[in-house]
């Protein structure tokens, strides 16, 4: 009796699991948002609609992958938006044994509107580069439980994202370079930028 029941239940469970994955993936691919939304039950985990639209529009204009989506690669990315420089991303991907660094920049120089992609290059990095950068993120994230909303109107936005082992997380900071308590986080970002650009 139990074997007969399992014979019918197992295919149904498999179908349910596969359809859930495909729905989740297709929803993710179709969305214009790259970040989780702020909710009453999780006030420290998401962004409001305005900020999510703002950040997402820049990533989309640069043809960046949505890190909330499922991926076979592990990724760390910095989105840098400044009123005094072009909008830029610095991304490190680890896909199987290959580690690559990517830089993209737009022609938008105030960080407000999404510009057109005008600069792009990539370079090969080492497995040890990935290990160092990923371990540092874990350490930094453990000391910063919540994200912050913008603390002013004149400064840069730094969004550091990581997707590792199907887990997505991010750190969002305003004017990182002038806030003393975030010195380690700023140095971490500069290390990624140097790795990718040098």
Note down, in words, how this protein is organized:
- This protein is of the alpha+beta class.
- Helices cover 37% and strands 25% of the residues.
- It has four helices and six strands, in the order ααββββαββα.
- Strands 4-3-2-1-5-6 form a six-stranded antiparallel β-sheet, with helices on both faces.
- Strand 1 (74-81) and strand 2 (88-95) form a beta hairpin.
- The longest helix has 29 residues, at 2-30.
- It starts with a helix and ends with a helix.
- Mean pLDDT is 77; it is low at 1-26.
What's this model, at a glance?
The protein contains four helices and six strands. A six-stranded antiparallel sheet has the order 4-3-2-1-5-6, sandwiched between helices.
